[in-house]
Amino acid sequence: MTPADTAATHPLHATHPLALAPVGAPPLTVDGFVAQFLHNLNYDGGVTLSASSTNDRYLALACTVRDYLMARWLEDQRAQLQHQAKSVCYLSAEYLLGRQLDNDLIASGLAEIATEALATCGIDIAELRGHEIEPGLGNGGLGRLAACFVDSLATLGVPSTGYGIRYEYGIFRQTFEDGQQVEQPDAWLALGSPWEFPHPEQAQTISFGGATSTSDDAGVTRTRWTPAWTVHAVPYNYMVPGFQNGRVNTLRLWSAVATDAFDLRIFNAGDYEQAVRAQTFAENISKVLYPEDSTPQGKELRLQQQYFFVAASIADFLDRLPADFDLARLPDRVIFQLNDTHPVIAVPELMRVLVDERGMDWDAAWAIAQQCFAYTCHTLLPEALEVWPVELLGRLLPRHLEIVYRINEEFLAAVRARYGDDEMRIRDMSIIAEFPERSVRMAYLAAVAGSRVNGVAELHSQLLRERVLPAFAEFFPQKFTNVTNGVTPRRFLRLANPGLSALLTEALGDGWVTDLDRLRGLEPFAEDPSFRAAFAEVKAANKRRLNDVLQARDGMAVGDGHLVDVMVKRLHEYKRQLLKVLHVVSSYESVVSGRIPVSALQPRTVLFGAKAAPGYTMAKRIIHLINAVGSVVNTDPRLDGRLQVLFPPNYNVTLAESVIPAADLSEQISLAGKEASGTGNMKFALNGALTIGTDDGANVEIRELVGDDNFFLFGMAEPEVDRLDRAGYRPSEVYQADAELRRAIDLIASGALSGGDRSVFEPIVSNLLYEDRFMVLADFSAYVAAQARVDAAYADQDAWTRSAILNVARCGFFSSDRSIRDYIDRIWHTPPTL
Ligand code: 26W
């Protein structure tokens, strides 16, 4: 008996006063909080305060915060159902959420009350804060951006749902053994997950394999898909609270559960393993996140994951429409934002549902589908664009392959109509690639089906039009647009940097948290010596706090009075961690060779944070090299402690929250034309670090806003890179011509960093000398020169602080709220309800 079909008088009916009655939130008082906390501890946790463990107390606290947010959440869900406003469905295979407790305490405005309430129970909230295991359901930039976006969607009050996968194991835990990365499984759910609400009753059944058959139904060919196997997708709802606006959106993550528990017949026949095989096979789908963030492995399980969450999400959204909803009006009700190519299988899935299940004719369905999707590309690396072999797609999703073929056929007919029989162009634009293996090019499918295609920074969107999808930009010029990335100021300023937040609120009022453009008001304060002093003290305090964290976590510490030089991001050759390593080795070599006195060195701590995809051998070698450099430099008395390299393992959102506020220098040194945007660059600038960087991704927009005087630019711009590439780049000639570079490389090649064993880092050295795809050597001398400018600038602390303040003041543009507003204006056309 559902609310819909019971009489309006029945309490279960959606309009019955009881159903409408807002759920009362616990009293917003310290006593009220204590009562709720103890209630949860005793009745949910089943323990008394005195007998409780840290985990019991943490779970009870989490439940209590949930209770305060519940009324808003239920009200929001009811309103979204009732209002029938156009909503955004953000489809992402990754969400790098970070810890929830602090974020929800700040969003609900409960932080002070909770701290005091727990103190009255003799509990230090910091202890419980540190107990939370962050949900690492993402690899890096793309996953974190999705998390920032759902935060901004809730804070702007946009009717929206984030859809994704509830991986049982997130991104691996990184440890180092002898300086080498070792991956450990991330059992993030082991101690319970208080922030999720499972709804098995809303499970969707997802089909795989099998075959299709057609039948003639009153002159209309109908296609039936008979799958070989199915799995249940069970939704787990997560709260996404807006910042102190009474709004709570939903993040719905799907978990795979076998349709039939296990085969009792086979079990009783004694083949226990076989009996549960189907079950484990099915539940493998949401078992673990693929740890790659650039080169797809093309694994079948990955495609299963993508179809699994996409099909469940589309079915879930259509289920929430009124039974009599006219699907022709679907574009007025929803926009599915495709977070890179990973969810693009959604296109043939919606076509399958509209045509095969809802009986719509192809053309009508296609007209609808084209208005319901938009695609964001997050990369410039050709190898990162996913292609699925038709063999695999046809086997796993036979109906979807048929639909892709038909979409392609009609698209190529349109191409022919415009350009005539230009076979080269047809072959180049076909969604189906013939070589090296017949495959579906998912980015092409997204460009054909999507109403919009956007890059994530101005330069990226330009290169997308000119280099990655030029034929499509010419064919669909109106589709291509840009939305420069952003980061949420709630987590990456208000939560991560309470010292700076207090200073900003004192100077500007607290409106900046939801209106980051107000940071502009900080400009005049850069000229105020007392404000500069306060600002510098905040940075110093953040360095002390980082040291406490690093000491407890890894037995490390930033050098006292050191320039804190930070490079934290995934390990990838295009991001050029190797350039940073060569700079360190060059500084080290110049001192131990006696070329410069150690006193000439600006005391500096270089802090790395980086995970490498387990299968990415060169990346893992570079990690080994960084640790090897660290162990030599950090222990060489000739450096007098003026240069050190720290590489805390397992860089994640939680560590970022301590590292970023403490940084002086932000390393954004990718080869121009390779980093789509970057978002770490934005977080550092907003936390008062100066950037040393190339004109790549969003660095360009950061430099334009903060001004050349407040940014250490170096290296080739993208057109120069392109020219050098075309002209033929010979790195060994650069090596020959640059003595400083040669000495640094020779030191690495000598084995001095690897116990005399030259073979350890030989592959890195020979790659640099004879390939160097990302032109590390070509940009080395400009980089070293820029670092010398950094040293000189840092010597004048007051000028440095002034420049840091101007970076903060001029980076309000990089709020993810602004990004979401751009998506609304340029792509979604959904009205913010707030
Ligand atoms: C299939 C393997 C795979 C997995 C993830 C390929 C590519 C990806 C992501 C697109 C990689 C990624 O995280 N890209 C980053 O996205 C950020 C958010 O837009 C950008 O800021 C970064 O520049 C971009 O590298």
Automatic annotation (TrEMBL):
<dbReference type="InterPro" id="IPR000811">
    <property type="entry name" value="Glyco_trans_35"/>
</dbReference>
<dbReference type="InterPro" id="IPR035090">
    <property type="entry name" value="Pyridoxal_P_attach_site"/>
</dbReference>
<comment type="similarity">
    <text>Belongs to the glycogen phosphorylase family.</text>
</comment>
<keyword id="KW-0119">Carbohydrate metabolism</keyword>
<dbReference type="Pfam" id="PF00343">
    <property type="entry name" value="Phosphorylase"/>
</dbReference>
<comment type="function">
    <text>Allosteric enzyme that catalyzes the rate-limiting step in glycogen catabolism, the phosphorolytic cleavage of glycogen to produce glucose-1-phosphate, and plays a central role in maintaining cellular and organismal glucose homeostasis.</text>
</comment>
<dbReference type="InterPro" id="IPR011833">
    <property type="entry name" value="Glycg_phsphrylas"/>
</dbReference>
<keyword id="KW-0808">Transferase</keyword>
<keyword id="KW-0328">Glycosyltransferase</keyword>
<comment type="function">
    <text>Phosphorylase is an important allosteric enzyme in carbohydrate metabolism. Enzymes from different sources differ in their regulatory mechanisms and in their natural substrates. However, all known phosphorylases share catalytic and structural properties.</text>
</comment>
<protein>
    <recommendedName>
        <fullName>Alpha-1,4 glucan phosphorylase</fullName>
        <ecNumber>2.4.1.1</ecNumber>
    </recommendedName>
</protein>
<keyword id="KW-0663">Pyridoxal phosphate</keyword>
